[in-house]
Structures are given as C-alpha cells and as structure tokens.
C-alpha cells in the first residue's frame, strides 16, 4: 500500500507537535507500509504563505489567522506532482489545514486532528475571536476534502460534528500513543511501583510546556493539592518538568513545598531521557489538571510507567484514564479536598496503590500506544482501500 505523507511539520523531529508526526511515520513503516514523505516547511513555502496572508489582509481586511488564509500555490503544485509520480493509494497529513490544497479524488484523503475550533475558543482564552467565524469556514472547507478523520477522543469527535459542511469525513476514534523510544516492560514497572516509598514521601510530577501555559496547565491546582497533603502530615516533593514563572517559584517557597524544577527535557537525547526515566520511576502521582487540553501525550507516557494520573475534565484529556481505576478526574478546582482524600486512600494501602498503578500500565499497553492506534484506525482504512481496488 503506497502512502503519501505530507505535512508542514517536521516528520523526523521528535519535538514537532510532541513527536506525533514522527511516531505515526515510524509505526507505518514498522507495519510494512510504503511511505513517501513530502514536508512543506521550506523557505519557498513559508515565503509564499506570508505573501498570501498579506494579500488576504489587504484585500479582505480579515487579517491573518490559524486557518483563514488562501491555499498555498506552491503546496498545491508540489502535492499534485507527487501524486502523479508515485500514484499513492492514500494521502495522509497529521493536520487538517493542508487539505485546503487537495480536493477529493480516487485517492483516499486521511487526516489527524486532536482539537478543532469550536473547542479551541472555549479552552484557550487568549485566542483572537476576531477571526473565529472566518476560521470556522476555512476548517469546514478542509473537512470537506477529507475522507477519513482520525481523532483521539469522543470530545474531539463532538467538536468536529459542530461544523456545518456539505460533506463530513468518516470519523475514526483512536487514542494517540506515548512517544517513548522504549516502553518499560511490565516486570520492570512492577518493580518500580514496589520501590516507591509512598508512606514516607509522595513525589508528584506535573508538566508545563512554557511560562505562558502554566495557568492553563493547572499548576496552581497541583500546588494546592501538595499543600493540603502536607497539612495532613505527608512529606511531599513536587517535580516540575518544564519552565515556570518566578511567581510559581515564590509560591512554592512561601508554602515550603519541596520542589525540583527539571526544565524542558528532550527525550530523544540519551542523557535527558535517563533523567526522565529516573523521575518517572520514583513518581507516585502524575498531575495534569489542565483548564483546556484536547489530549495529553504526557499522561500516556506517565501511565507507561504505572503512575496513577490526575487530570481535569476539560476537553478530551479525561478520556485517557478510567476514573478511580487508573487515575482520578478532577472535576472542579474547588474540590481539591476530594483529590487529597483519594490520594490518602490509595497510599495508606500499598495493595490499593499497586492495583491502580498496574491498571495504569495495563491501559497504556492496551490502548495508549501507536501500534494500537494503527490497528484501530489506519489498518481499517487500508483494508477498505484494498477492497475497493
């Protein structure tokens, strides 16, 4: 089966969109698919994009936005050339926007999407509402050119169905996987879990991508849980992966919460992956109570280490875990005492903690990996193509 994989993201870079484009490329090749790559992020493509945005701004007075600019002429030509030369059975892109350049044809168009604009405006307060309607129209046009849309959660599926389009793609739901070079084996994870000193010190790990997103990632909720656990007499250590603001550092010192700020980690580098592995081995709970999150690759990775995860019910992130089975869904930031009580019940019994931790890795191994993603989405699409041929 021939697949043309085109993107404006760097498919070979682990940092590009949490490593998702690379992970999908790797799993396609692993499953013996013939993949041709076309990356539209060179200087010519970018310059033409800027030029077309300027034209759009001056002619339409609508300005520049996420989706609302003209299809790039260069991209349109390049994709048609590749289609003519390699004659693919499937055209795939890890985003929807590039399907502005490809109309429906005998070739099956497949795209990936973890969030769409109806949910985007609600969860990202800083989104410029000036272009919202324009972007809705542009996104709808992209969807009309797609045959299959792969989404990771039911929340994302519901966002997609809000569009008023002439034709809607077939939607396949499939969890995204964890972007780890090697998944820890069950035996190794079981050993990690048993060594965690949950009765002496609770190591809580949270993740922040950058200083701007600290509020959206709910670091204040995580800190509040740490404070309440300390008030109950538990020794707490908070490990933050990512950058934080000076306000957060001052707050941690004021509350006397023992903390380690690791900074950003590039898991594709051996040295930084070892640091990540050590942190996850010792972590008791993983927190990502985001106020807006379509999905959470970081949660999948934590569950690969058998760590019970605490997530918010905003967006699709809550669907990754099974509430009270492999983690806990934080429904409101004001109910942190319920989260604390849940933590207390778990680690007062080593048996309970072991059970929930093993449930976390079991869920990862069954659903939250890229082979599972391939089986439940791509394989179905490719089988449909084979039947048509």
What does this entry look like structurally?
Helices cover 44% and strands 15% of the residues. The longest helix has 19 residues, at 370-388. Helix 9 links the parallel strand 8 (235-241) and strand 9 (258-261). The chain is built from 14 helices and 12 strands. The protein is globular, with a radius of gyration of 22 Å. By secondary structure, the protein is an alpha/beta fold. The chain has 2 domains: 2-177 and 369-388, 3-Layer(aba) Sandwich (Rossmann fold); 186-366, Rossmann fold (3-Layer(aba) Sandwich), CATH 3.40.50. 42% of the residues are buried. Strands 2-1-3-4-5-6 form a 6-stranded parallel sheet, sandwiched between helices. A 6-stranded parallel sheet has the order 9-8-7-10-11-12, sandwiched between helices.
Gist of the model:
Helix content is 44%, strand content 15%.
Low-confidence stretches: none
Q: How would you sum up the global shape?
A: globular
Give the CATH class of the largest domain: Alpha Beta
Q: In CATH terms, what is the architecture of the largest domain?
A: 3-Layer(aba) Sandwich
The percent range for helix content is: 40-55%
CATH homologous superfamily grouping of the largest domain: Glycogen Phosphorylase B
Strand fraction band?
A: 15-25%
Average pLDDT, all residues:
87
The helix/strand order is EHEHHEEHHEHEHEHEHEHEHEEHHH
